[in-house]
């Protein structure tokens, strides 16, 4: 059994009554890629949120690296979050910061030196092909460009796990293909990925395991 990420009988009730996840159990190996699929409202975003502890499970346990939701302390939550990169459909970039600053911000928060921040941010901008747009603000970037910046931010601290919640949901097929290619490249370098989507066409192109949720249950 993997000891990278484990869901053990996880139940999530919102407001103690709305059942979003129902006894979900699965494990993910280090470096593995899985698709998380299911119709709208099935619980995909909830499952991802429980991993980065945006929410806590109501019952059951989630273990990630050396942490468990049963024993993790408030002080440890930021440490866990440094080990998980998150990519959202709507990017969630800071609007008043440039592309460069959106990425550098993630590095500053962990107390890297100014020199190291500059080196790493420029390297990340280059890896997503946007060095020339580093001083642009999010409203001056296309959807695909915004997603590239959010991917650079997600991998800034080289986390062993990337969670992508409908990362191409708002993009045209060609731009979406480029974003998918970028995520696959990150995976090829050894990073585990959970990618939530309700686009079943996407699955056909890849040979990865699929986790399917229906009304909060894994099927
Ligand atoms: N903060 C919340 N409070 C109450 N209920 C919530 C909350 N967030 C989600 N839910 C409910 O939990 C269920 C699962 O929602 P979730 O967002 O995880 O679904 P999803 O699979 O990501 O859907 P979509 O494909 O539309 O993004 C839904 O019934 C939703 O109404
Ligand atoms: Mg969702």
Structure, explained:
With 219 residues, the protein is an alpha/beta fold. It has two domains: 1-83 and 160-219, Rossmann fold, CATH 3.40.50; 95-158, no CATH class. 32% of the residues lie in helices and 26% in strands. A six-stranded mixed beta sheet has the order 6-7-8-3-9-10. Strands 2-1-4-5 form a four-stranded antiparallel beta sheet, covered by helices on one side. Strand 9 (209-214) and strand 10 form a beta hairpin. Helix 3 (99-108) packs across helix 4, helix 3 packs parallel to helix 5 and helix 5 runs parallel beside helix 6. The longest helix is centred in the C-terminal third of the chain and has 16 residues, at 173-188. It is globular. The structure holds adenosine-5'-triphosphate and magnesium ion. Residues 14-15, 18, 20, 38, 40-46, 198 line the site of adenosine-5'-triphosphate.
Please describe the topology of this protein.
Layout: E1 5-14, E2 18-28, E3 33-37, H1 44-51, E4 59-64, E5 67-68, H2 77-82, E6 84-88, H3 99-108, H4 114-127, H5 143-154, E7 161-165, H6 173-188, E8 192-196, H7 200-204, E9 209-214, E10 217-218
Parallel strand pairs: 3-8, 3-9, 6-7, 7-8
Antiparallel strand pairs: 1-2, 1-4, 4-5, 9-10
Helix pairs in contact: 3-4, 3-5, 5-6
Please give the alpha-carbon distance between the first and last residues: 20 Å
Give the CATH architecture of the largest domain.
Answer: 3-Layer(aba) Sandwich
Q: What is the CATH topology classification name of the largest domain?
A: Rossmann fold
Q: How many distinct domains? A: 2
Order of helices and strands: EEEHEEHEHHHEHEHEE
Low-confidence stretches: none
Number of H/I helices: 7
Fraction in beta strands: 25-35%
Q: Give Rg in angstroms.
A: 17 Å
Structural class: alpha/beta
Overall average pLDDT: 96
Give the beta-strand count.
Answer: 10
- Helicity range: 25-40%
Chain oligomer state: single chain
Tell me which ligands are bound. adenosine-5'-triphosphate, magnesium ion
What would CATH call the class of the largest domain? Alpha Beta
Strand order of the largest sheet: 6-7-8-3-9-10
What is the CATH homology-level superfamily of the largest domain? P-loop containing nucleotide triphosphate hydrolases
Largest sheet: 6 strands, mixed
Gross morphology? globular
């Amino acid at each position: 059994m993997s000891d990278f990420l484990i869901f053990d009988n996880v139940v999530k009730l919102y407001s103690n009554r709305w059942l979003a996840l129902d006894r979900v159990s699965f494990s993910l190996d280090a470096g593995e890629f899985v698709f998380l699929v299911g119709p709208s409202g099935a619980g995909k975003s909830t499952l991802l949120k429980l991993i980065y502890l945006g929410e806590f499970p109501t019952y059951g346990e989630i273990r990630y690296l050396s942490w468990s939701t049963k024993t993790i302390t408030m002080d440890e939550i930021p440490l866990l979050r440094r080990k998980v990169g998150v990519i959202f459909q709507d990017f969630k970039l800071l609007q008043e910061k440039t592309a460069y600053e959106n990425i550098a911000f993630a590095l500053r928060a962990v107390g890297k030196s100014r020199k190291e921040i500059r080196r790493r941010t420029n390297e990340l901008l280059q890896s997503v092909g946007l060095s020339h747009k580093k001083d642009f603000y999010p409203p001056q970037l296309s959807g695909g460009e915004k997603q590239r910046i959010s991917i650079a931010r997600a991998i800034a601290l080289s986390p062993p796990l990337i969670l992508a919640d409908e990362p191409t949901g708002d993009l045209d097929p060609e731009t979406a293909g480029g974003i998918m290619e970028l995520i696959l490249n990150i995976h090829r370098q050894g990073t585990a990925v959970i990618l939530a989507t309700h686009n079943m066409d996407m699955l056909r192109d890849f040979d990865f395991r699929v986790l399917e949720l229906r009304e909060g249950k894994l099927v």
